[in-house]
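Cast an eye over this sequence plus tokens and walk me through the fold:

***
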Amino acid sequence: MGALVKGGTARLESRSGQDWTAAYPVVVDALAKLPVRTALLDGEVAVLLADGRTSFQALQNAGPRGRIGPAGTLVYFAFDLLHVDGRDVSKLPLEERKDALELLLKDAPPSALAAPRGARVKPDRDVALGSQIEMSPLGLFL
């Protein structure tokens, strides 16, 4: 799900073009407060349970405007930063984009925005099998 931040506002849009902004106001409000003029992020909205797992079922059961009750917390997990302040960063190496994304979200409320900190495997240095791979709440990220 894409997150477009522009001039203190934010919008969430699915890959098929469906606008999800009204469904997740807590996430949209947090995105709108990011310290940028414009940004385009790629990520997914999920319900984060108290034990650190995510629940697709809880997301499906979310009430109007993303109300999930005591089941967990609605979070936008940002995986990639594609544009920032008018600059296309999508061609930069993934490591640089991940670093920039983490820096952008460092002061964001963790109850609404997160950048999964999965293992970063370098093919020339690490072998996925046999390496200690860190699991994030959404699974394995390489």
Q: What stands out?
A: The first strand starts at residue 2 and ends at 6. The two ends are 19 Å apart (CA to CA). Residues 119-135 have pLDDT under 50 and may be disordered. The helical segments are 25-32, 56-60, 94-105.
